[in-house]
Structure formats: C-alpha cells, structure tokens
Amino acid sequence: MKINSNNIEIKICSSVFQVMKKYIQLGAGSLEAGGILIGKENISDDNIIIRYITEPYASDKRRYNKFIRKDKRHIDIFNEVFNSSNEIYCYIGEWHTHDEDLPDYSRLDLKNWKKIMKESPGNIEHFHIIVGSKAIRIWKFGKLLKNPDLIKTIYWKDVVDFDKKTDW
C-alpha cells in the first residue's frame, strides 16, 4: 500500500499488514502486541519502504493496555536484516496494538517515542504505527517536531495487496 504525505511516499508491504492483522485486539482478554518496523529510505526522493516487522516474543511484556519490547530477538532480527542487506534496511520505528477501533497514542506511547527520539542520532524522524480493530494509524515523530504528526489513518477494509503490484 502506498501512502503519500508531505511529498514523501511510504510503501508498506502486505506481509507487514498480515503480521499486524494477526494481533488485532478484540476485547478485554486480548493483549497488546508490537515490535520494530524495518525498512529503507530512498535517498534520491526520501520515500520510505516498510518491508519487515518483528512480532511479540516470549520475553516481551504484554498486557491488555501495555506492550514493552524486552525480548532480544527483536534486535537480533533487526541486526540480521541490516547486515544481510549491506546496511540498506534500517530501523524505521515501532508498531503496537490498542484495543480501540480507531487507535490513538497514549501518554506511555508518547514517553516511549520521546525516548527513541532522544537516543537517535541527528534529526532523524521515525514512524510509529498503532493497530486498531478497524484501522491502523501512522505517526511521524522526531526532534524537529513538537508533537507527533498523524500522517495517515488506513482502514483495514482499504488495505490492498501491495506486493503483487510492485517489482522489488
């Protein structure tokens, strides 16, 4: 799926949507899930491709209203993709679920995004995705932004099979 925002095109592969869809929270018994977004930036036009994501693992902290990425496998998978791609694929941001139809970020989410921003070199902006039961929402956040910038709401019914239309 292609998303256009402020002259930047973000492409999200269908395999990424498929993983996220597995973890949609539906009710009080469901737990938040999340992981790392891995992709690449086309230097010539600033376009972003989100190609891979990590999934929740055994050591992650999962609650109804909280996901804390603790399992080292997230970093191991990131390093494997980063190294095997000759450092082309990089950290794009984080994703997680909320038990909401149309999710919004929480104070804890904002605190985590600010921590990521502080630990990032330079003025890099990251993308953060929150998955709800009816839609996913994408925010951009970095040192040059005072607040997270909601760049897109994508309803699940509108998700198309991007991989079949693209030559990778």
TrEMBL record:
<keyword id="KW-0862">Zinc</keyword>
<feature type="domain" description="JAB">
    <location>
        <begin position="30"/>
        <end position="140"/>
    </location>
</feature>
<dbReference type="InterPro" id="IPR028090">
    <property type="entry name" value="JAB_dom_prok"/>
</dbReference>
<keyword id="KW-0378">Hydrolase</keyword>
<dbReference type="GO" id="GO:0008237">
    <property type="term" value="F:metallopeptidase activity"/>
</dbReference>
<keyword id="KW-0645">Protease</keyword>
<dbReference type="GO" id="GO:0006508">
    <property type="term" value="P:proteolysis"/>
</dbReference>
<keyword id="KW-0482">Metalloprotease</keyword>
<dbReference type="GO" id="GO:0046872">
    <property type="term" value="F:metal ion binding"/>
</dbReference>
<keyword id="KW-0479">Metal-binding</keyword>
<protein>
    <recommendedName>
        <fullName>JAB domain-containing protein</fullName>
    </recommendedName>
</protein>
<dbReference type="Pfam" id="PF14464">
    <property type="entry name" value="Prok-JAB"/>
</dbReference>
